Amino acid sequence: MTATAGVELPMVMTSSCVFAPCRIFSGRSSSFGSILVKIDTVVTREVSTISNKRAVSGWSVYPTGIFRSDTKHGNIYIIHKEFSSLHNGSSDMGGEATPVRDGTNHGYQRKEDGKSGVDDVCRILGSGPWGYALEDALYSLDQKHQPELVNGVLKRLKDVNLAINYFRWVERKTNQVHSREAYDSLLMLMARNKSFDNLEQILEEMSLAGCSLSNDTCIELVTTCINSRMLPEAFNLIQTMRKFKYRPAFSAYTNLIGALAVVHEPDVALSLFHQMQEIGYEVNVHLFTTLVRVFAKEGRVDAALSLLDEMKSNSVEADIVLYNVCIDCFGKVGKVDMAWKFFHEMKAQGLVPDDVTYSSMIGVLCKANRLDEAVDLFEQMELNRKVPCAYAYNTMIMGYGSAGKFDEAYKLLERQKGKGCIPSVVAYNGILTCLGKKGKVDEALRIFEEMKKDAKPNLSTYNILIDMLCRAGRVEAVYEMRDSMERAGLFPNVLTVNIMVDRLCKAQKLNEACRIFESMGQKHCTPNEVTYCSLIDGLGRHGKVDEAYDLFEKMTDAGHIPNVVVYTSLIRNFFKCGRKEDGHKIYNEMTRRDCCPDLTLLNTYMDCVFKAGETERGRALFEEIKARGFTPDVQSYSILIHGLVKAGFARETYEKFYAMKEQGCVLDTRAYNTVIDGFCKSGKVNKAYQLLEEMKAKGHPPTVVTYGSVIDGLAKIDRLDEAYMLFEEAKSRGVELNVVIYSSLIDGFGKVGRIDEAYLIMEELMQKGLTPNVYTWNCLLDALVKAEEVNEALVCFQSMKDLKCPPNTITYSILINGLCRVRKFNKAFVFWQEMQKLGLNPNVITYTTMISGLAKAGNIMEANGLFERFKAKGGVPDSACYNALIEGLSNANRAMDAYTIFEETRLKGCIINTKSCIVLLDALHKAECLEQAAIVGAVLREMAKSQHASRLL
């Protein structure tokens, strides 16, 4: 059978007949995109019946265009080709039957008017969810769905999924590719709904169909992502456009580059900048300015300078905005000379500096403490100016204030008034800020009252004043200032409360801080993360770690996500209170909550762990810093070295120090001090001395801690003359020496018997207005006792008590030892009783000294009784104590008692010296205790063999 010209359909086989290929008539379309050709009258009649009666037994019509019949006439199929794999409508929905509807039953008439057609389609699309019924209703309209109609409908729709379903349905119905306008409308709708799931497929379709992408659509898509803070998505969107050979709009690039600069992503912005050039866009000075600004602000000066060179090579002329940006940004990262260079260069290029130029340059010079240059430039700017620049005045006033030159700042205020320009609240706030930093609270309050004549205080003004009053601990004045603010119609915001809570905590006014926090609800001010963090830290620093943790839980219950600062505070304060297990739990809880630690937290945790004596765990944390992708900084190494020194691994400091230098860490004063202290404690005093010289050469002035470490190290190895020379150098450099340094020298001179020098240093210490502490006195007393100048020691002891320095256990131990050495046992026993009356518990050295003294004096009963009382109190006698008692009992002819102590000494694993064995052996022979004497003799022989072997080695 023949058919008219059109598009061929494949031959379809049935159980009863064969249908020849049929064609779709050119220029016409049926309800399902194909025509059933009348071949057999019966079949024609059945189809007609379906059309009229809408449902006949066994027939169903599928929206995809597939007919099915289970009648006695067999199966009839007409296959409709789907256009796209993106269709997600009801075409494949389980084969449910939907009756055929004709155009009259649904109540819609075919209209030629385009607007009416759009209204009809939109009315149907809005009648319910996409499905068979809705598709059937669209079929019944019998619209041609020309591009104008489709585009109009898509512009009206607000639901992306509905629009995509309609878009695909039209494809199937017309079997034609959509127009560019339809694609643009769909993409615009996706942009408005921020729905980009199918974007890549849509762009691919457009590319294959040869549809161009309009600039408006491109800009809309990228701008939507930017406004929604979806910058990675915006970047990927541009790359997708490039993938399908589209040229993204110029504004799409520039808008995204600007947004990336704001969030400090200079490298990504630079890659887009270069991509623009690759596809033929001519970049302008505005783009260069944006990129130079962000790189300079990040401190990446070389990258910023490279961009400026690139700009010159592209023959792009710099404008005044670019120069102003360079002056401001390079100056703020400390490149003051470079900022000056740009200032002079712009004038050489014929550009006249404006108010922004002068104000920026003045601000840079003030920040760099180059106040004289700033004043000269300010005067140069004002020379021929009729109208003063308020911003430059504010900057200069702030510069004077930061330098502490408040009289000059006040004069400049008056000068500004004299020129007819009333100082703004910004100028006054600048002065108040500087007064607060200098601690001049009363002066600030005076200026605040004068300010009211010229400018109305704003919320920032009151926050500045509240801040300084809180720092000074003037709580009542804080409340008065808050009330004054409310009377002025300004109410504390969360920033005000955060200032009050934080500063009061730091001023040791914790109760007031808690009261303000609890009253926030009454003031209709909700605490934020900063509020919680400040109070949690304040509670923890005051030892109230349980209350701090309770507040932490309230914070999480309120929906606030704890940040790394809160965890750092909790870990530090739990460790500080000696609750290291709770500190570990906090760290583990943080990792469970997927809160990634930063380098500050890891350094703090490592420091706490080392201070808690967990050396191996501290080492492991140092390795964890590297495992987490961080580079250990100078603080990390300083903590590690200090921890290792404290744990007795001082010899490792050399290796760690050079590892730190090889990594490129720039050592600061604290790092030098830590390493120098480590070298001194490990006996490498020469290395410490070299580092001291290096420190001075690198421009780091040694502090009292630096000198103290080296002086103490030299004194401990009897290099006292060098230590004293360093002591004099520190004084000549104006370093305020402390009691610790004086004590180190007193101890060093005293131990080598140079009592006169020790006395002179003690006198100098007191002439400087310093008060010797108990350690200083003990050093001098010990030196006198060792020189057997016990009477002089007793005079010093009395001076110590007269100067209100309470003696400790070590003080009494030194005196008791000295008195026993000169056989003044009764006087020693008096001091023994005195220390116990003061509540001082004798240590093992005191007991040993007293027991030995009593035994040597022949008071063996008292010595033995003291020994037993010491053990009964839980004391652990050392070898010296056992040996003293063995000798005392042996000399008192109590050989068997001495032998009992001898056996106990061996059982405890303490060393028995040769003299004690000989004295005991003689006593046992005299008492005819031959068996015990044989055992002691055997021990003596073993000791002799051991000593002989060690001498041979």
From TrEMBL:
Residues 89-116 are annotated as: Disordered. It comes from the Eukaryota. The keyword Zinc does not apply. Gene3D superfamilies: Tetratricopeptide repeat domain (1.25.40.10). Coiled coil: none annotated. SUPFAM superfamilies: TPR-like. Keywords: Repeat. PPR repeats lie at residues 284-318, 319-353, 354-388, 389-423, 424-454, 458-492, 493-527, 528-562, 563-597, 598-632, 633-667, 668-702, 703-737, 738-772, 773-807, 808-842, 843-877, 878-912. Signal peptide: none annotated. Residues 156-312 form the PROP1-like PPR domain. The keyword NADP does not apply. PANTHER family: OS03G0856100 PROTEIN, PENTACOTRIPEPTIDE-REPEAT REGION OF PRORP DOMAIN-CONTAINING PROTEIN. Belongs to the PPR family. P subfamily. This is Pentatricopeptide repeat.
